[in-house]
Design goal:
The chain is built from eleven helices and eleven strands. It is of the alpha/beta class. A seven-stranded mixed β-sheet has the order 1-7-6-5-4-2-3, with helices on both faces. Strands 8-9-11-10 form a four-stranded antiparallel β-sheet. α6 links the parallel β4 and β5. α3 runs parallel beside α4. The chain starts with 9 loop residues before the first helix and ends in a 6-residue tail after the last helix. Bound molecules: pyridoxal-5'-phosphate. The site of pyridoxal-5'-phosphate has 13 residues, from α3.
Length: 353
């Protein structure tokens, strides 16, 4: 048995999961109290009058191939957000357990923990936004069940040192799960850690179709981990979590032809990211553009309020991240189309190159 399972809440380990209607597509369905006719204007392939297949085998197989793991190591859910929520609910007892985060980082880890009543332990990234693995390790008391790391990190844009992350996973082996959120890894030109789950039974990698694959509205993400962790989480994910339309959109996006289109989008974003960074750095309003391995830039402005307003004047919405630790004068800017990026540079008083 994976020793990490012993960290799960005892109630979850003992839980009798909901027995959803069995999936036997070769038979006609008189077992799920569905209507036998489609709703008007239902043009879906599956028929929305039918409950969807839980953890659809076709989609799971495509995701497993995409991420280079076995299908049993993939849990599909409504975005990484659902995976984060499931992890916290499965491993943290309210009022007793804790998650560890490294701010400034993605806000959902702390929100999911607080909803569950878990404590949030903070170990800030260093001033260059690199991971302080020693500090994380010493802050990992017995109450810490999950360590959330994000690479490339949102909102700072940098990759974490993957060998430091893996060493940390090794050091925490049976004590805590290390959850590595790779929502933006496609833009980094760096390898994903999904292949490392074989060697690290306490490593969980989060991937999503929301960013590089352009499917934020479909809500589909994947949790990649040791089979026994995935099996545990399959017991608590809502029985028909993935809507049929989401499954159809995701499967269609993961064909070889569509993946080739995705690759060109990623390449365009990477080129535009460098052009935008250079253009921003050349304006006198910008103090610093942080290097980015993602599809956004963290930018420190002389007067961030003025920059946000100037962008609004050009009908462009930027993300104000000034309230986050260490980001007092920073704004997060998503790389847009070449036209949008040019419009932004003009609004900020820069010369598009
Ligand atoms: C956008 C983002 C996600 C993706 O969340 P989904 O629920 O999959 O849309 C996950 N993690 C981080 C850090 C993000 O910025």
């Amino acid at each position: 048995m994976n020793p990490v399972l012993a960290l799960a809440r005892p109630e979850i380990l003992a839980l009798e999961p909901y027995g959803h209607a069995s999936w036997e597509p070769e038979l006609e369905r008189l077992h799920a109290n569905e209507l036998p006719w489609r709703a008007p204007a239902d043009h879906s392939a599956a028929g929305l009058n039918r409950y969807p297949e839980p953890q659809p085998r076709g989609l799971i197989a495509q995701l497993a191939a995409l991420y280079g793991v076995r299908p049993g190591c993939v849990l599909a859910g409504r975005g990484s957000d659902e995976a984060i929520d499931l992890l916290v609910r499965a491993f943290c007892r309210a009022g007793q357990d804790a998650v560890l985060i490294c701010p400034p980082t993605f806000g959902m880890y702390a929100v999911a923990a607080r909803i569950q009543g878990a404590t949030v332990v903070e170990v800030p990234l260093r001033t260059d936004f690199s991971l302080d693995a020693d500090a994380v390790l010493s802050a990992c008391g017995p109450q810490v069940k999950l360590v959330f790391l994000c690479s490339p990190n949102n909102p700072t844009g940098n990759l974490l040192d993957v060998s430091a992350v893996l060493d940390l996973a090794g050091a925490l082996a049976a004590r805590a799960l290390v959850v590595l959120d790779e929502a933006y890894i496609e833009f980094a030109g760096a390898p994903s850690a999904t292949v490392e789950i074989e060697r690290h039974p306490n490593l969980v990698v989060l991937r999503t179709l929301s960013k590089a694959h352009g499917l934020a509205g479909a809500r589909c993400g994947a949790l990649i981990a040791h089979e026994e962790i995935v099996a545990l989480l399959r017991r608590i994910i809502p029985p028909y979590a993935l809507p049929a339309l989401t499954v159809e959109a995701a499967c269609a996006a993961l064909t070889p032809a569509q993946l080739a289109v995705t690759a060109t989008h990623v390449e365009t974003v990477r080129c535009e990211r460098e052009r935008l960074a250079t253009g921003l750095a050349a304006t006198n309003q910008v103090l610093r553009v942080w290097p980015s391995a993602s599809n956004f830039l963290l930018v420190e402005f002389r007067d961030p309020g003025r920059a946000l307003a100037a962008a609004r004047g050009a009908r462009l919405l930027l993300r104000d991240v000034r309230s986050q630790r260490g980001l007092a004068r920073c704004v997060r800017i998503t790389v847009g189309t070449p036209e949008q990026n040019m419009r932004l540079l003009r609004a900020l008083g820069g010369e598009p190159s």
